[in-house]
Structure formats: C-alpha cells, structure tokens
Amino acid sequence: MLVTVLAAGLAGDVHPLAALARGLRDAGHTVRFATHRHWRSVATQTGLDYAELAGDPRAVVTDESFLRVLEAERRPDRLAAAAVSAVRSLARRVEWQSNTGLRAVIQLARWYDEALMNDVWSACEGAEAVIYGAPLAYHGYYAARALGVPGVAAFLQTGHPLDHSVPGRRFLGQQIIWQIFRESITRWQRQTGQRTAPFLGPFPRWHEERLPIVYGLSPSVLPEPDAVGGDRHVAGYWFLDSALGTSLPAHVRDFLAAGPPPVYFTFGSLATSHPERLTHVINAALAVTGDRAIIATAWGGIGPTPDTDSVLCVEELPLDLVFPHVRAVVHHGGMMVTAEGLRAGRPTVLVPTVFDQFDWGNRIAELGVGPRPLGRKELTPMRLAGALTATREPEMVRAAAELGTRIGAERGVDHMVKVLDRVLTSGRDVRWRKS
C-alpha cells in the first residue's frame, strides 16, 4: 500500500511521524514522507520517499515577531500585547497587504497556506492512505476525502481542535484556526472540482464519523485520552532513534569520559531574543552546584559559551545517544525532548515558554521525576541551582529510572504500526466517497 505521511512544523512535530513512517515501511508499505525542505534529510536518511512542502520552520521560530509571542508566556495581557506587536511587524514587511495589521496576517497566512495545500495535494496524489499530523489536520483530512482513501490523524498531544476524543472542544478556538485556512482550502476544492467545505468547518462531520486518531503518547506518562478505544489508540511514544547520527562525536565522548555525568541543557528549536541572559543564568547556576554541563545552542535558545573542563558547548546532538550519559536534563518542554529525557530515565527540569510546555512541566512534577517547572521569566541562577540540586534527590532519581524502564518497554512505533495496518486495510469508517 502506498501511504503518504504529512509532517509539518518543528523537529518535535516531524521526527515522531518519520519514526512512524519508517515503521510502516519496515512493515512492507511504500511510504511517501511529505515535509519541509529543512527536514528532507530526515526522510532520505530514514529511507523514505520525499515530497516537499512549502515553508521554512526555522525562519518562522527565529523571527522577531514570533519571539515576542513566545516570550509572552501564558499571561493574557502579555500575549495580547505581543500579538499586536507581531501583527504590526508582519504588516510592515508585507508590502502588498493593506494597512490593517490583522488583515495582513490573515492574508499572509492564506497566501502561504494555499501553496502548502497545493503541495499536500501533490504529495497525496496516487496514495492509497493518508496519515497527517496536527499542523496539517485540515489539509490531510480533505486530501484523503478527495481521494476517497483512508485518512488517519496522528497526534502528539491531546487537545487539537479536531481531536473529538476530548470533550467540550472550544468552538471559538476551532473557528479562529479554521477560518484562517478555510479560504485556501475551499479555493483548492473548487479548482479540483470538489464539494467545498462548510463555512463552519469539518467539525460536525468529524465528530459524527469518528475518524481514527492515533496518539504518539506514553500511557506511562499521561492518562489515556477520554474515549480511547475503537478508533482512538495510544501505545507509546514514536522515537526516531539516531536522527542526527549513529554515534557521538569524538570530542563529546572525550568530555563524557573525563568526569562525572554532566547536566544537558537544550531549548531545541525555540529561540529567544536574549540568549545571552539564559547563558548567564546557566553558568551562574553551575557555579553554585558544581555540575559539569553540555550546553546545546541549537536554533538560538541558548547563547554560546566558551568550552572549559566542566562545560562543553555544542550546536546539537542526537538525544537518544547523549541522554543515557548525563545525570539530568534541562529544557523548554517540547514534547519529544521531554519524551527522550524520560525514556533515558533522567530527572528533568523544565523551563517552559508557551502552550503545552507548561502542562508537560506540571506533569513531570506530578510524576516525581523532576521539580516544579521554572517559567522563563522567573528563572534566576539560584532558582535554577535549586532545581538542579533537587534532581539529585534519591527518590527523584529512582522515580525517573523506573519511568524510563516502563517507557523503554512500550515499543510505541511497533504497536502503532499494527494498529494502522488494521485501520488502513479494514476500510471501516475511514474511506470517503469522492464528492
């Protein structure tokens, strides 16, 4: 069976779906992996056919307007002020738009989404099934419907507007997202001779038909979403092992061998407008605790720092290879870096910035595998030092190790491939009639 897997966004959005795609390929399917050009190597190195999707995720998350929204955290007043600032900034840079900031952003989103929808359609043509991640839920849903083939949503967290397993979905949140994309999707539908989507979106039909949802979540970490069973499935995380290589660089191995296990710091794909401040906080906290450290600058979340006998600065490392060699991890709370740290059985300190990162931080504290999360705005050297000290507590170390053992035994990709084989070949409630 030819299966198209649609993956858009950052590493935490793309890598798990690549792992799932590789599992499908190993099970005998032909898999076409559609993602941004930035992640092309993830597809090719995994042995998947590649199809390109519009967009540059790194350009988005390092843009000053995006950083304002991130740094607003969860406070409504900060988010509102940051959103207004981002709107104005984008409006100034999009010369062909009107002077109305909100309209400019909506038009820009629709212009980009029209290119993305066309790429999605090209990637899905000829496919016998479509699997789509949350960022492309609308696109994948309607592409599968147009082809008359099975379509399955692959979510990496609960709470997506199309996720009918969570009761009481917020109508306003659904409509804000849907109305931005509606015009480009309906225009594409008219161009391809399809029946256009309803003005209020696919939600009633989605709920009625209960299309399949698979979750890349660990039942050891989160309680199963409501109504799991039937067409909703949870079996464990989807790990793409060694996505950045099969061995650690020699200088990293030498550093690890030269002393006690270090603490690993990373903020992954999320940048910040003041990375030097975060670097100062980290170095000052390390001076208090005496920890060795590996600091990953990645896309600009942490500023570079000179290498010393106790601190090694890198750009990025394969987390599945380095985490087993550290004593604790400190990061922003992206879903997959959280999963990697928990699988390695290491205590975790979260410094969340936005959205679900706060939820992961609270859940880690509830599980006893890390201290309470430290919001970026409240982060100081002494608070970070206190959190690092807490990760040495024997009870926390033991709880983290036990959780890591359970997660390692789940084999989420293998289980989910078996589920998808059943779903995609059954045809029950997942095939569409072409409109």
UniProtKB/TrEMBL annotation:
SUPFAM superfamilies: UDP-Glycosyltransferase/glycogen phosphorylase (SSF53756). Residues 3-156 form the Glycosyltransferase family 28 N-terminal domain. Keywords: Antibiotic biosynthesis. Pathway: Antibiotic biosynthesis; vancomycin biosynthesis. The keyword Lipoprotein does not apply. Residues 309-401 form the Erythromycin biosynthesis protein CIII-like C-terminal domain. This is Glycosyltransferase. It comes from Amycolatopsis heterodermiae.
